[in-house]
Each structure stands twice: as C-alpha cells, then as structure tokens.
Automatic annotation (TrEMBL):
<dbReference type="InterPro" id="IPR017896">
    <property type="entry name" value="4Fe4S_Fe-S-bd"/>
</dbReference>
<dbReference type="InterPro" id="IPR017900">
    <property type="entry name" value="4Fe4S_Fe_S_CS"/>
</dbReference>
<keyword id="KW-0479">Metal-binding</keyword>
<keyword id="KW-0411">Iron-sulfur</keyword>
<dbReference type="Pfam" id="PF12838">
    <property type="entry name" value="Fer4_7"/>
</dbReference>
<dbReference type="InterPro" id="IPR047927">
    <property type="entry name" value="YfhL-like"/>
</dbReference>
<dbReference type="InterPro" id="IPR050157">
    <property type="entry name" value="PSI_iron-sulfur_center"/>
</dbReference>
<keyword id="KW-0408">Iron</keyword>
<protein>
    <submittedName>
        <fullName>YfhL family 4Fe-4S dicluster ferredoxin</fullName>
    </submittedName>
</protein>
<feature type="domain" description="4Fe-4S ferredoxin-type">
    <location>
        <begin position="1"/>
        <end position="29"/>
    </location>
</feature>
<keyword id="KW-0004">4Fe-4S</keyword>
Length: 85
C-alpha cells in the first residue's frame, strides 16, 4: 500500500527529508507522495517515517494503491537496484 498525504497537511516540511525513497515532494498546495516510489519504508525501517513524524496525522494508506508487504519489498528491491546502477 502506498501512502498519501491529505489536504490536512500543514506543509511543516518534516516528511520530505525523512522519506528514504524520495517519494515525497511538494505539490500545488501541499506535499504529495508518488505511489510508484512509496514502499511505506519497507526495506528501510519498521514503520513509515513520514507517518511517525507527521504532527497532524494526515498520511493514511492510499486506497487506490493497496499492496502487500511482499509487493512493497519487491518495489523496494527494484528502486534500490535502479539507484545503484
């Protein structure tokens, strides 16, 4: 499952640098998460870092991008292989 940032985001800037996959960037009005890069920190950490750090709890699971832990791990492996090569 990829995560998403809702319009409750206050643009506090803590999530973007915490993302190990560089999946978070500034959108038109608030931060957004690229579902192709979001692994919910699987492969990096035990918990999604953005969710842990978010002061307003505006980062739920994106219902349009439901993935299993195995799928997230495969995505992590693809992303790290691509960045290493």
């Amino acid at each position: 499952m990829a995560l998403m940032i809702t319009d409750e985001c206050i643009n506090c800037d803590v999530c973007e640098p915490a993302c190990p996959n560089n999946a978070i960037s500034m959108g038109d009005e608030f931060y957004k998460i690229d579902p192709a890069k979001c692994t919910e920190c699987v492969g990096h950490f035990d918990e999604p870092q953005c969710v842990m750090l978010c002061p307003v709890a505006c980062i739920p699971v994106n219902p349009a991008h439901v993935e299993t832990r195995e799928t997230l791990l495969q995505k992590y492996q693809r992303l790290t292989a691509a960045s290493a090569g």
